[in-house]
Amino acid sequence: xxHLRLLAAAPIAALLSLAACNSEPxxxxxxxxxxxxxxxxxxxxxxxxxxxxxxxxxxxxSLVYADFSADGQFARIGTSQTDRVRVNAAEANRTYSxxxxxxxxxxxxxxxxxxxxxxxxxxxxxx
Length: 127
Description:
Layout: H1 2-19, H2 36-40, E1 51-58, E2 63-69, E3 74-78, E4 85-89, E5 96-98, E6 101-105, E7 109-113, E8 120-125
Antiparallel strand pairs: 1-2, 1-8, 2-3, 3-4, 4-5, 5-6, 6-7, 7-8
């Protein structure tokens, strides 16, 4: 008979021990973020302009790669797919120039000068 009482009391004891557990995780060792206040008061982050990539095939059969900023302020231009030079526009979406490069372009046609070559006409080319 005492065995039956013990068996009946076991589930009750298990429930009581579980009820004593705290379901909230313990916050041991959590440091306060030292920049929390500064970040809260910081101005919104402005993303850089989107880029539009173009490849042009020129009259000498060379390829020129250009990435134009969507806001028309600058472009990156080069004769390889990886090395580009930033060129700036005096007026948005006009002629970009810098470091020996010049490009006047639209989606289909361009006048391009690269260092060591004279200016030439180029047509948009699918990459």
